[in-house]
Amino acid sequence: MGTVEYIQHHLTNNTIGEGFWTFNMDTIVVSFLLGALIVFMAARLGKKLETGTPGGFQNFVESILDFVATNVRDAFPGHNPLIAPIALTIFLWVWIMNFMDLIPVDLLPYLYQLITGDSHAYLKVVPTTDLNTTLAMSFTVFALILFYNIKIKGVVGFIKMFLFHPFGKFFVPVNVVMTLIEEIAKPLSLALRLFGNMFAGELVFLLIALIGGTLAVGAAALFWAPLQVLLDLGWLIFHLLVITLQAFIFMVLTIVYLGMAHDEGH
Amino acid sequence: MSQSDKKSPNGVRKETPPALNFLLMGAGSIFTSMLIAGFLVGYMLDQIFETTPIMLMVCAVLGFIGGIQKVHKLTSKLDRVEQTERKDD
């Protein structure tokens, strides 16, 4: 298999259906399983909570909860009991979906190909390298932004925001288009940033994997194989930072955008 | 997070919540997505009013202006943070 085919093969989703109704099954199944994993772990931990001195895992989860709660308190004006759980869910889910990036790029597709017996079966294991996932999440956030905009400001206030927002009352048509652009840019920037970062990260992992695949032939392997290990380790450590940062940014921006929707004086 | 946050947690933090730093980090993607959103809205309006390609161009320019305006607004907040830091020193 050539290098181009290798990369293309890894970046193609396992799909069902055609045209508009194409379902990326690997994205759906993996993200659902990871979500279920979070729910399962949370439920298991919830059953045996200790009030005295918590164990290691409980301590760890409590520190994450604390971290998210601090961020919500800092970035969110006013009070809404829904925001912190949303922020926590987004942070954990995005993080664990991003984490799939750190599993060796060929491992899960190879296992899948062994199981199905089809040596050309596609499997893209990182849900966040699929634009559909990130757009779905950001549109959910967008729906919440619209909902709270209308709920807090009222329908009249919401329309006023569209009519008079950036340039005052003499440029109403421009204002409408401008606010429309501004609102649409919010979910777009959320989705594209996460997708772009994860996709690029995955691509770099694939390129590093190719070092071993194409160059390490015969005695050259003595040089290229250790280099691949070194590069992979370096990128993995750096990427661990990136996935955490991306999950964190997605969470913080969600809080900030929802905070803007709650801000009446805007 | 800036040093002034640690020095006076109540006073300065209200003006510059730490989340702002992450908004700043996204300034680049905010700018590009404003441009993309401009194109999208323009395309949509063109489809509705059958004015291809006038609205697309107008909205792209508007998105560009809006993007610059937003980035400018974000970075001018940074100026304020620096000023308060200088006062603290």
UniProtKB/TrEMBL annotation, chain A:
Top-level lineage group: Bacteria
Sequence similarity: Belongs to the ATPase A chain family.
Cited function: Key component of the proton channel; it plays a direct role in the translocation of protons across the membrane.
Protein name in UniProt: ATP synthase subunit a
Membrane-spanning intervals of the chain: 20-43, 82-100, 131-150, 201-224, 236-260
InterPro entries noted in UniProt: ATP_syn_F0_a_bact/chloroplast, ATP_synth_F0_asu, ATP_synth_F0_asu_AS, F0_ATP_A_sf
UniProt entry tagged with the keyword Cell membrane: yes
CDD domains: ATP-synt_Fo_a_6
Organism the protein comes from: Thiomicrorhabdus heinhorstiae
A Pfam family reported for this protein in Swiss-Prot or TrEMBL: ATP-synt_A
Keywords: ATP synthesis, Cell membrane, CF(0), Hydrogen ion transport, Ion transport, Membrane, Transmembrane, Transmembrane helix, Transport
Membrane topology: Multi-pass membrane protein
Subcellular location(s) per record: Cell membrane; Membrane
TrEMBL record, chain B:
UniProt keyword terms in alphabetical order: Membrane, Transmembrane, Transmembrane helix
Highest taxon listed in the record's lineage: Bacteria
Ranges annotated as spanning the membrane: 20-45, 51-68
Keyword Transmembrane helix: yes
A UniProt-annotated Pfam family: ATPase_gene1
Keyword field contains Transmembrane: yes
InterPro entries linked: ATPase_put (IPR032820)
Protein's UniProt name: AtpZ/AtpI family protein
Natural source organism: Thiomicrorhabdus heinhorstiae
Origin organism lineage: Bacteria, Pseudomonadati, Pseudomonadota, Gammaproteobacteria, Thiotrichales
